[in-house]
Design brief:
alpha/beta; Rossmann fold; eleven-stranded mixed sheet; Lipase domain-containing protein; serine hydrolase activity
Amino acid sequence: MKAALLCLFVAAAYTASAVPVNSEFSEDREYPRFIEFPDGEGIMHTVDLEAELDHELLNEISRNPANNIYLLYTKHNPHSPQTLVMNDIASIYNSYFNPHVPTVVIAHGWLSNQETDINPTIRDALLDKEDVNVIVLDWRRLASSLYNTAVRGVPAVGRGLGQFLNFVNFVTGAPFDSMHLVGFSLGAHLVGNAGRELQGKVARVTALDPAGPLWNLNSDRVKPGDAIYVEGIHTDGGYTVGGLGIGSNVGNADFYVNGGISQPGCITNICNHNNAWRYFAATVSYNHIIGKECSSSWQITWNSCKGDDLPMGNNDLRKFGSGRFRANTSRRYPY
C-alpha cells in the first residue's frame, strides 16, 4: 500500500512539473528581483528587474524613432544591405525595395544587433525561398541598455517601426497586407507594438518565444489584433525561474513546441529560447513542422492533442488559424 501511494505521489509530482506554461497558469507568474538572461551571443547576464531606469535614453527613444536602423536585403543584394531612412524618400527610391513583393521585417532581442545570428539565418531562408524584401531592424541603441530599461522602451521602438512602415507604404504603395513582422524575445513584443501602430493591418506578426520577465501582465506585450494573423512560437516557457519565454498565449494561434518548455538536444534555457528562431527559419525553407490543435494544457504536456492540423511558422502571408497547438521536432536541422 505504501509503495502504491509513493508511486502515485511521484507520478503526481512529475505531472505538475511537466505542465507547460499557458494562459491558465502563467499570468500571475512572479520572477525574483535578480535573474539570468542571455544576450544575442548566448552569454548570460545577471539582470536586476528593479534597477533604476535610464529615463534620459527612454525620452530620447520616444522622441526620435529614427534611432532605429533599417537594413534592406533583396535578391539583388542578399549579403550587402542598403540602409533605408525614415522620412528620406531618396533612400527608398534609390534602393532595391520592390513594393510588388512581400516585405518581411526581422527584429532581434536584447543586447543584440544586425550581426546577431537570428538575422542572417532567417534572412537567408527567406531569400532562398522567394523574391522578398527583407528588412533587418537594428535597434541596438535601446537593446544595449539595462534589461528593464529596454523593456520599458520596446513600445516606443515598435511604434517607430510602425511609423517607418507607414512611410514605406506612403512612398511606394507597398500594401500592409503584404508585410510580415517577425520578432524574437524582446523583439517579439516590439513587432507586436509595430503592428498595433498600424491598427493591425499588416498580414502577420510572428512572435518567436516572446520574452517573459516583466511581460506577463504587461499591456504592451504582443497580442491578437496586432496583425491580421498573430502567431506565437513557444520554446522556453517553463514556469521555473530559468524560463526565458512568456509561456502563455499571445496570438491567434500559439504553438508549444515539444510541449513549450524544453527542446530536444538542449540542456540550457538559452538553447531552448534560441531554438524558436531556428525552427522558424527551417519552416520557411521546408514548411514541414505541423501542429496539432489541443483542447487542454494536459494534452500539450502529454502530446495527446487530437484536433486539426496547422503548419507552424513558414512564410505564408494568407495563413490563418486559432487555438493552441503542440508541434514536435527532432533535435537536428531541419528538425
